[in-house]
Amino acid sequence: MEVREAGTEFDCGLKMGGKVEVILNTQLKQQKDPKEAITIAISARALFDMEEEHELFLSEGRETFETFQLTNEDVPLKEGIVYPFIKAVQMVNARLLARNPEEKQLFEIILLSTHSAEGGVRIINSVNYYGLEISKFCFLNGSDPSKYLHSNNVKLFLSACESAVCNALKKDIPAALMLHQQYQTAQEHLKVAFDGDSVLFSDETDVVFKEKGLDAVIKYEKDREHVPIGEGPLKEFAMILGEMKKKFSPENDPINTYLVTARSGNDMGIRAIKTLRNWGLKIDEAFFMAGSPKGPLLSHIQPHIFFDDNARNIKGARAYGIPSAFVPSGCE
């Protein structure tokens, strides 16, 4: 589960209680329909590069951090790891509305910060500076973000706070840890890549492999070839993307989805393919890596986000500048 690098600190300043401040973004031309929208929640530190500011918070405390933010509130924050994904999501919204101006099933983005609204003006100003379509800002004053995800019907939560991600996953909310990194992504389309086991699928096969080894897991998969694999934490979000893709003709589809799994195609690929078929989920391209490094392939795809539960795969993808979303398993 460990993905942190030397010197990396994930302390998010979470505490019990805390006043929650919610600010609607009145600069948006059109607010999304909360009953129909696909809500994605992101943390401020995932959307923007706030590593220096976070280091100040850890070393000098909340008051010094907020004073710094107030002093620099007109200085836009730098783009963070989730930024290109959000811009691509906005592109999909624009394409949906161009196709049907009455479309209601749109992506809605809400931003969560564990800090106060007083120190959050710089975040709001940065959102407006980049023209990001954030519907509302939730300043939690140290409260655990996962407490507010269900009430907002969040379908995906991306955060730079490990404990917040684990808390969300324990409440069955799709979530992933996004760490600051250098990145490169495709300019066209929304490209999303998923690992298989413990991400798109459940961890049942991983458990057998860890407990009994490769030969046993191959037999396990062959014996259950016609039994769909259990659902993983990102299955629902993948299904949502699949439904959105159906709104477009193949030649005009702005969404590309990928399965990049460590499974081998010959021994363990058939059950995975049949599971996707059973779900009615069409993936644009599926790659069965048979344990090979995923980084080189992902560098060719250049997804806006890559979900994986394996720290080695995350590290390998990051080395190629791929925005990597760690889905921790076994959160305590």
From TrEMBL:
Q: Name one GO molecular function term.
A: magnesium ion binding
**GO terms classed as biological process:** adenosine metabolic process; nucleotide metabolic process
Please provide, in alphabetical order, the Gene Ontology terms of the cellular component aspect for this entry. cytosol
Q: Which domain of life is it from?
A: Eukaryota
Pfam families in UniProt: 5-nucleotidase
Q: What is this protein called?
A: 5'-nucleotidase
Origin species, per record, is Scyliorhinus torazame
Taxon lineage = Eukaryota, Metazoa, Chordata, Craniata, Vertebrata
